[in-house]
Amino acid sequence: MASISNEPERENRDEEETGANEDEDTGAQVAPIVRLEEVAVTTGEEDEDTILDLKSKLYRFDKDGSQWKERGAGTVKFLKHRVSGKIRLVMRQSKTLKICANHLVGSGMSVQEHAGNDKSCVWHARDFSDGELKDELFCIRFASVENCKAFMQKFKEVAESEEEKEESKDASDTAGLLEKLTVEEKESEKKPVEKAEEN
Asked: Residue 69 and residue 59: Cα distance in Å, rounded?
């Protein structure tokens, strides 16, 4: 019976010794099989500043099936270009970083709360996430009502500022055209004036 009680102790000692051996540094150098070169990765967002960044889930309305289809879960961003000042909405899936939505926020665009859900909102856009422009109806859902309201407020601000930019550009274009206008007198109008001066 004494030998039976010693066996568990010997097994525990063996496990401790093997555990200690795993952590030891043997000094052996292992060379990599394949050498990988560092590759510069560009996201297309290098010349833009992030205005808003929120976690969300995006849906696209499928006209053929008359239903909402999930587009992806990740972060939605408003990005402002440093040179042009244009603002676009970009959303990438969190794990794969695949683009779910990519479109400019322009004048005339509007966002509204989704009926029956105060954490969601919907809008129309000409989206370029699949490599071609498509008219899409999007719905986005957030974890909180506050995030949804922040998104809607920023969306409206951007759309209104784009509308103001367009109006001021139209006004300056019109002013430029007015400056170029000159008044030309016709020969028939000049002659009567000259005759009146002779009398």
From this structure: 5
The dihedral over CA atoms of 83, 49, 47, 123, expressed in degrees to the nearest 10, equals -80
| Farthest-apart Cα atoms in the chain, separation | 150
Place of tokens 């407020």: 153
Q: What is the pTM of this model?
A: 0.64
Structure tokens at 103: 């479109």
Nearest CA to 139 out of 120, 166, 154 is that of: 120
| pLDDT recorded at residue 130 | 87
Give 156-165 pLDDT, tens digit per residue: 999 998 877 7
Give average pLDDT by consecutive 10-residue segment, the chain, 199 residues. Answer: 51 54 73 85 86 95 92 95 92 92 91 91 93 93 95 93 73 66 59 51
* SS3 of 117-181: CCCEEEEEEEECCCCCCEEEEEEEECCCHHHHHHHHHHHHHHHHHHHHHHHHHHHHHHHHHHHHC
Rg (CA), the chain: 34
Instruction: Find out whether 88 and 106 touch, Cβ atoms under 8 Å.
Output: no
